[in-house]
């Protein structure tokens, strides 16, 4: 009986010692050789404060973009821009490229650097492939307060037409939106009413279902052209 009590006592003492060792050692345990080793708890103890410099060699592009987006949401545009500039040595796919230049556009716009903001939006359009909406967003923004000349804007429209027509398909439905937007630019910014009419006719060729709408615009433009030619 006494012998059993002694064994139980020893077990209790050993259990207490083990508990004390665990409490003192934190994430340490003992391996088969009796040496202390650190246990991986699966928790990332490293924290990154948005705006801190991130080493591009160890951080992924996605992490930098996430931090920049948080900064922009907090209207810390300069910090976001500085952070995004650290991505120069990193590469990503088209999706991340769209994200990057969208954030650059937002940062520059927040800093009222509209020229750079427009150029960043242009890169969004390029990375977006054969979709007209990003190009129209870019062109409309560029026509705002970005300070581009008419010649530069005209060149941008031609870049959009080239990008969307790169497939060689003249009937690309995405071209319709660019044709109509370019037509209005030619008419009301450049004063080239004949050119505007020509692009609306191209739009009709691709999208005859909207011919009535486009023809109504053509009628108005022909009136303007008639006045201009007097």
Quick tags:
elongated, single chain, 230 residues, two-stranded antiparallel ribbon, mainly alpha, Serine Threonine Protein Phosphatase 5, Tetratricopeptide repeat
General description of the model:
With 230 residues, this protein is mostly helical. It folds into 2 domains: 55-128, no CATH class; 142-230, Serine Threonine Protein Phosphatase 5, Tetratricopeptide repeat (Alpha Horseshoe), CATH 1.25.40. Helix content is 66%, strand content 3%. A hairpin with a 5-residue loop joins strand 1 (28-30) and strand 2. It is elongated. The protein starts with a helix and ends with a helix. 27% of the residues are buried. The model is unreliable at 18-58 (pLDDT under 50).
Secondary structure blueprint with pairings:
Elements lengths: L1 H24 L2 E3 L5 E3 L22 H13 L3 H8 L9 H17 L3 H14 L4 H11 L7 H15 L9 H17 L2 H14 L4 H18 L2
Antiparallel strand pairs: 1-2
Helix pairs in contact: 2-3, 2-4, 3-4, 4-5, 5-6, 6-7, 6-8, 7-8, 8-9, 9-10
Summarize this entry quickly:
This protein has 230 residues and is an all-alpha fold. Helix content is 66%, strand content 3%. It contains ten helices and two strands, in the order αββααααααααα.
